[in-house]
Amino acid sequence: MLLSFFILFAILILLYLLAIMPKLKKNPNRIKFEGWYYAHRGIHDNKSQAPENSLEAFRLAVEGGYGIELDVQITKDLVPVVFHDYNLKRACKIDKKVSELNYEELLKYKLFKSQESIPTLREVLECIEGKVPIIVELKIPWKPHNTCIAASEELNAYNGLYCIESFNPFGLGWYKRKYPDILRGQLSTDFVKEKIEGSRMQYFILKHLLFNFHTKPDFIAYQHKYKKELSFIICRKLYKAWSIAWTIKSQDELNDSKDYYDTFIFESFVPNK
Questions:
Q1: For residue 188, is it within any domain?
Q2: Is 111:117 a contact under the CB 8 Å cutoff?
Q3: For position 250, what pLDDT does the model report?
């Protein structure tokens, strides 16, 4: 009886280790992303004329010589736009979802009382012009097909350096099938501690990176506050996964995370280069 228990336990441990295993072979393009600090949604201040995910915030990041992290989702008419929240309430003071509006309707709203409108992905790529590397987070509520197609059509025509990340493993799985050479990363956090509404089972799976067997991410982008979570540590120490910290908001937080992460996404301060 005791022997059977230990065999079952060993099998479960093995299955767990296989489930969280990221891609082991290093993508040769990864080196191009190393050594950069990435400005979270650009160099922004939501009380200025350079709010988050605005063209002006991206111009400031390029001028400062920083990489950029940005968010992409699609409108009702399948236009990929650069905007973080699914709802416009926080940024534009209107209780409507991006997915409920056509792009022409989105143009009526300004970001955080500035003169900046919600930009398309194409406008952002034209603004950055390949001058700095970018991390593109795909905002996918569930089914990835339309978002991935719309984003990839713009990114395929872009000559600059970019990689893909998402919380949604099905989006990463789509990119793995269609564009296996594009660097891709699994985003995660402790969803329960962050009080994010949703299924606890789903969030348990995502927090513990249990879809890595399917997505085979090239890197793990983990919220820096939870850098001591077991699955993240195993990916980092055992599998030698490249790791990105988000979102660092002070030099002290950056210094405290240097032993756990290889690269850093920052906001609210300018890191020491």
A1: yes
A2: yes
A3: 97
Instruction: Tell me which residue has tokens 């790791």.
Output: 243
What does each C-alpha distance from 122 to 15, 61, 70, 216, 273 come to in angstroms?
A: 42, 17, 13, 28, 29
Give per-residue pLDDT as tens, 109-136: 999 999 999 999 999 999 999 999 999 9
The residues annotated as belonging to the active site are 40, 84
* C-alpha dist (Å) from residue 259 to 103, 170, 185, 237, 255: 43, 30, 20, 11, 8
**Per-residue burial over 141-160, b = 16 or more CB atoms within 10 Å of its CB, e = otherwise:** eeebeebbebbbebbeebee
Q: CB of 160 within 8 A of CB of 130?
A: yes
Query: What's the pLDDT tens digit per position in 192-204?
Result: 999 888 888 999 9
Q: Does residue 9 lie in a domain region?
A: no
| 16 lies in some domain | no
- pTM of the predicted protein model: 0.95
Helix H segments across the chain?
2-19, 55-64, 89-92, 103-106, 121-128, 145-156, 169-178, 200-207, 212-215, 230-237, 251-257
With H, G, I as helix, E, B as strand and everything else as coil, classify residue 201: helix
Q: Which CATH number characterizes residue 78's domain?
A: 3.20.20.190
Residue-number span of the structural domain to which 183 is assigned: 28-266
How much is the average pLDDT of 72-101? 97
Considering its fold, how many domains does the chain have in total? 1
- Give backbone dihedrals phi and psi of 27, rounded to 5 degrees, phi first: -70, 125
Q: Which two tokens stand for residue 169?
A: 């493993």
Q: Which residues contact 208 (CB under 8 A, 6 or more apart)?
A: 20, 229, 230, 231
User: Does pLDDT of 54 surpass 80?
Assistant: yes
With tokens 């097909």, the residue in question is 145
Residue 19 domain flag: no
